Amino acid sequence: MKSSSALTEPARQPAAGVLVDAAWLEAHLHDPAVRVVEVDVSRRAHDEWHVDGAVFWDVYRDLKDADYQLIEAAATMRLLARSGIGPGSTVVFYGYAPALGFWLAKLYGHQDARILDCSRDAWRDEGHPVSSQPS
C-alpha cells in the first residue's frame, strides 16, 4: 500500500488527502499535535508491538456499544479525550480497521484524521520505530 501522495506539510495544517506515508508519520511521531491510533479487534498484537507511541482502540469494546452499534457522539468524544486527542490534533489511524476509526472521528467532527498508507507489518519490516510499552 504505497502512495505517491506523500504529505509534506506541517502536521497542524489540513492535508489535501487522507493517506499518510510511513516517512511522514515517522518524522512526526514526537510531534505533540500528532496522535497515532491502532484500531483492531484484539489487543494481543498491539501489546506485542505497535507503532511507537500509538494508543489502542478495540473495535468491539471501544467503537461498538452494548447493542453492537457504533458508539454515539458523547462516547466518541470521551474516547478521543482518553486517547489524548484534542480538536487540533492530527490523528493517524492504522491496524486492522483504520477506516472505521477514521470514519468515526470524521462523523463526529474531528477535522484532521488520516490513515497510514502501509500495513502494520510493513511499518515494522521497513525499520520504523515500534514499541511494546503499554500505551
Which architecture does the CATH hierarchy give at level 2? 3-Layer(aba) Sandwich
Low-confidence stretches: 1-14
How many strands appear in the DSSP assignment? 7
SS field, number of helical segments: 6
First CA to last CA: what distance?
A: 26 Å
Main beta sheet = 5 strands, parallel
The secondary structure category is alpha/beta
Q: In angstroms, what is the radius of gyration?
A: 14 Å
Q: Walk across the major sheet and give the strand order.
A: 1-6-5-2-4
**Domains (count):** 1
Order of helices and strands: EHEHEEHHEHEHE
* The CATH C-level class name: Alpha Beta
Strand content: 15-25%
Mean pLDDT: 89
Remind me, CATH topology? Oxidized Rhodanese, domain 1
Report on this structure:
With 135 residues, the chain is α/β, with parallel strands linked by helices. The protein has a single domain (19-131), classed as Oxidized Rhodanese, domain 1 (3-Layer(aba) Sandwich). Helix content is 32%, strand content 20%. The chain is built from 6 helices and 7 strands. Strands 1-6-5-2-4 form a 5-stranded parallel β-sheet. Strands 3-7 form a two-stranded antiparallel sheet. α5 links the parallel β5 (90-95) and β6 (113-116). The two termini are 26 Å apart. The model is unreliable at 1-14 (pLDDT under 50).
Write the layout of secondary structure elements.
Elements: E1 19-20, H1 22-28, E2 34-40, H2 43-48, E3 50-51, E4 55-58, H3 59-62, H4 73-82, E5 90-95, H5 98-107, E6 113-116, H6 120-125, E7 130-131
Parallel strand pairs: 1-6, 2-4, 2-5, 5-6
Antiparallel strand pairs: 3-7
